[in-house]
Amino acid sequence: MDQENIDASAGLAFSLLLFEKYGKTGALQAEMQHVPGIHGPCKGHLHLIAGKVATSYLEDQRGQHFLISKEQMIRLDSEKGPFEWMLTPLPAPPAAQPMAYMQPTAHEPVPRRIAALDLDKLQGWNAMQKMMLSLIFEAIDGQRTIAEIKAITPLKPAVIEEGLRILFALNVINISS
Fold it and tell me: Against a cut of 0.70, is the pTM above it?
């Protein structure tokens, strides 16, 4: 089920509750009509990370983005929709692929920062989750491999891997080998 799009057109509010309960990560999108302040049709976007809304915005026909809160998006869906929301699960970044830890290669993945991490945009995240994500982000210097980041960061390897997936999904890091 995680490899294909998930129909979430039962209503945005209800779908978000389910995605949070099951910790879904992905891009939730819908074509929208008659949105106040936007000329013509547009597309609604919500990016979910472990069931939480990380970003929410509208995109007009010219590709211009308009930030909108999760609550405003839910209100739009209930007043003008319901729209046909589809969740596209995010593929795992290269760091999440099984790696041969027993046989190090010359080309181990190296995460690099490509944007600033704005923890205030992570709606619904508690202080501990934000702190762990920040620790992982701070360990990324463009030189350290994922194995080295795991060695110097005081978190479990699985937590670091999930943090790297989240940072990758937020488009604040990329990973090259």
Answer: no
Of 38, 55, 89, the position where a domain reaches its end is 89
Closest CA to 107 of 145, 66, 162: 145
Q: What is the 3-state secondary structure (H, E, C) of 3-58?
A: CCCEECCCCHHHHHHHHHHCCCCEEEEEEECCCCCCCCCEEEEEEEECCEEEEEEE
Domain boundary among 60, 89, 118: 89
Query: What digits encode the pLDDT tens for the residues 4-19?
Result: 567 666 789 998 988 8
Number of structural domains, the chain?
2
Closest CA to 123 of 67, 172, 66, 65: 67
Domain span at residue 54 reads 6-89
